[in-house]
């Protein structure tokens, strides 16, 4: 079994525009479907509430790991943490990385979520499967966001 999810998409937008969609907390919230409490700051916890239909009851929380302008944005979080009565804080988080590369037509977005091998075996397969499907949708969401807001 793999310990990671990898997605890639070439977006028809300049690197700076994609960077803003990823790191401006309001734009991130719009395409990711989360209402964040404030800006992303390296080394700090970002919090909010999901606005994605069916998941509105969930809190969203991540620890921002890196903000390297126009290149890398990363955070750690607890994957597929959908049971509001379960304390996921005792589990190791996974690492989500968004890497940007300039292309002739725009920007290549490389998304990786790694560390699933450290998730407890009882929920590892489901977390990997659900997040893989979630990232497939989120890649579509950011692409649509950039088309709607060039």
Question: Can you give a write-up of this model?
Answer:
The chain has 150 residues and is α+β, with helices and mostly antiparallel strands. The chain has a single domain, classed as START domain (Alpha-D-Glucose-1,6-Bisphosphate, Chain A, domain 4). Helices cover 30% and strands 33% of the residues. The chain has 3 helices and 7 strands; from the N terminus they run βααββββββα. The chain has helices spanning 15-23, 25-32, 121-148; strands at 4-11, 34-36, 45-50, 59-68, 72-77, 94-102, 107-114. The protein has a 7-stranded antiparallel beta sheet with strand order 1-7-6-5-4-3-2, covered by helices on one side. The mean pLDDT is 96.
- Residue-averaged pLDDT, rounded? 96
In helices, the fraction of residues equals: 25-40%
Specify the structural class. Answer: alpha+beta
Detail the poorly predicted runs. none
Strands, helices and their partners?
Elements: E1 4-11, H1 15-23, H2 25-32, E2 34-36, E3 45-50, E4 59-68, E5 72-77, E6 94-102, E7 107-114, H3 121-148
Antiparallel strand pairs: 1-7, 2-3, 3-4, 4-5, 5-6, 6-7
Helix pairs in contact: 1-2, 2-3
Key words describing this protein structure:
150 residues; alpha+beta; Alpha-D-Glucose-1,6-Bisphosphate, Chain A, domain 4; 33% strand
Q: In a nutshell, what does this entry contain?
A:
Helices cover 30% and strands 33% of the residues. The protein is α+β, with helices and mostly antiparallel strands.
